[in-house]
Amino acid sequence: MRVEQISVFLENRTGRLAEVTSILTEAGVNIRALALADTSDFGVLRMIVDDNEKAKRVLRDNGLTIGAHDVVAVEVEDRPGGLHRILDLLGKAGVNVEYMYAFVRNSGNNAIMIFRFDDTDKALATLTQHNIAVINGKTVHTM
Amino acid sequence: MIYDIEFETLPREALSAIQLQRLVSTLERVYATVPFYRDGFKKAGVKPADIKSLDDLRRIPFTTKQDLRDNYPFGLFTVPMDNVVRIHASSGTTGKPTVVGYTRRDVDTWATLMARSLAAAGAWRGDIIHNAYGYGLFTGGLGAHYGAEKLGASVIPVSGGNTRRQVMIMKDFGPTVLTATPSYTLHLAEVAQEMGVNFNDLKFRVGVFGAEPWSENMRQEIEAKLHLSAVDIYGLSEVIGPGVAIECCEAKKGLHIFEDHFLAEVIDPVSGDVLPYGEQGELVFTSLTKEAFPVIRYRTRDITTLHAEPCVCGRTHVRMERVSGRTDDMLIIRGVNVFPSQIESVLMEMEEVEPHYQLIVDRKDNLDVLTVKVEVGEKLFSDEVKKLQETERKIAHNIKELLGVSADVKLVEPKTIARSEGKAVRVIDNRKI
Question: Whole-angstrom Cα distance, residue B287 to residue B282?
């Protein structure tokens, strides 16, 4: 149910993002989803890649500071209200969404969103309880 | 004007005789009452009775900031706390501050020295003094304050900060003398200009600036912007506070050290040899009249040169050049002493932070700005921006708590702090004083 997301600390100056994509390209790693959060001084790059171990290794070898955290890939109905329904259920259950971003592929007629929760266990329980489809962690990387 | 005409113009032979008498008396006092000094003298094989001339001072061991730290807080006081009426403190190299104490007579001596200083700058009874040095544990504010009162001038204890209100006070109360740090003064001038206040219309005549290094160029700038005569004042809390030496407004060429109260030496910082007049080295002081907290051959780590040529003002006391640098890595930021090792100790106390840091000091709009760059390692990193920002805030808060100085904390990628020959460059000071 959980997907391992890789995050990278980048200073907010030109070329840093390109440095990351260059390292991953050279290692033959494919990025499936990404989001970049920024402040005036630094950014946090979040990625779902197709080969976690290789990505972590090459990024570390190149002197970058990285992190790995569990996120959840959730199927969201691709119509008005699709996302709202899910957020509403989570909110009522007291689960907070730290951040979210879209995934590169769809699942049938549904969009796929990557969620980072403050309480992943409670989030998964709530989603399952309401029959909201969560994509298996392992398959996300190679969908 | 000379406040203490008899003592400030004492002929050199009379001055030397008084210095020797007071020196022996001070050595006897610390030998009898402070174990640290007694042990030090014994180890050097010398007793106060052995000191028969001023040259014999060289036989006495030096005292350093570390010695003060080792005897924190009151280990070097020569009197019981009942006799101590004032305590001040200033930065130590890590953790604890340097603590100093004053008897009632010490407070009065200090006030007299500050009165002498204000008079040397051109102030007198009848002047209104705008005192923008910080009041509190720092010796600047209260030092200038008591000196002004002793002189008989009217002192406004504005302290630091609240700049717009200070400008209003300058406009409404019409002070004639300004005592402040040079960088804050230029900041005051800027804010005043923004508020539409013209210094031509204000009544300032004299300014006494210190607590941080400043150049001749800065003096020209301050004098031009504020329409006053600016002089440099020198001091350090370990010796007494401000009022150890003052520039006279007549010459503005070097600061007269009050030699009837302080014996000054300039030494080679490496060998410890005493250097003759005219040679640059580290300034060392021995107090001659302090009771609660005398200092014996205290190494200031300030670099200067002493000149004994007679001065047009008539004072016979030797002059020191403006301090040109330090033998250690101490910085002065907005008048606050900061040691890079203090920042390091703050970072090391935070488990998630690795002590890979760099200090950048800039001067923006005439105010010192300290930026602390901290490398982000995996223990510190989080995928959530708010957590990283929280860490930045926590570091800044801890620095402010310990050092009393505000810093902008900037998280940077690992290994981006330049290493030169394997050793990290810890401080980049971009200020061109």
Answer: 16
Q: Are B276 and B216 in contact (CB under 8 A)?
A: no
In this complex, is the C-beta atom of A15 within 8 Å of any C-beta atom belonging to chain B?
no
Determine, for residues B383 and A7 on separate chains, whether the beta-carbon distance falls below 8 Å.
Answer: yes
Q: Tens digit of pLDDT for each residue in B103-125?
A: 999 999 999 999 999 999 999 99
CB contacts, 8 Å: A116 with chain B: 383-384
Same domain, A49 and A111: no
CB within 8 Å: B383 and A44: yes
Tens digit of each residue's pLDDT (9 = 90 or more) over B229-270: 999 999 999 999 999 999 999 999 999 999 999 999 999 999
Are the C-beta atoms of B27 and B48 separated by less than 8 Å? Answer: yes
The domain B1-327 is placed in CATH, from the list 2.115.10.20, 3.30.470.20, 3.40.50.12780, 1.10.8.60, at: 3.40.50.12780
Q: Which residues fall within 8 angstroms of residue B129, CB to CB, at 6 or more apart?
A: B118, B123, B144, B148, B153, B154, B155, B156, B175, B176, B177, B178, B179
Query: Would an 8 Å CB–CB cutoff place A13 in contact with chain B?
Result: no
Per the structure, the complete domain to which residue A102 belongs is given by 70-140
- Tell me which chain A residue has its CA closest to the CA of residue B410: A41
Residue type, B218: M
From the list B390, B382, B398, B413, the residue with the least C-alpha distance to B350 is B398
Closest CA to B154 of B175, B132, B172: B175
Q: Is A40 on the interface with B (CB under 8 A)?
A: no
Name the CA dihedral angle for B241, B243, B244, B250, rounded to a multiple of 10 degrees. 160
Cis before B73 (ω within 30): yes
pLDDT of res. B95: 67
E-assigned strands of B132-279? 154-156, 177-180, 206-210, 229-236, 241-247, 255-257, 262-267
pTM over 0.90: no
- B interface with A, Cβ–Cβ < 8 A, is 376-378, 380-385, 388-389, 410-416
Strand positions, DSSP E, B123-228: 128-131, 154-156, 177-180, 206-210
Indicate which CATH number applies to the domain containing A122.
3.30.2130.10
CATH code given to domain B333-429: 3.30.300.30
Q: Of A49, A68, A87, at which residue does a domain stop?
A: A68
Q: Is A123 found in the same domain as A62?
A: no
Place of tokens 């504020």: B226
ipTM of the predicted structure? 0.87
Contacts of A84 (CB under 8 A, 6+ apart): none
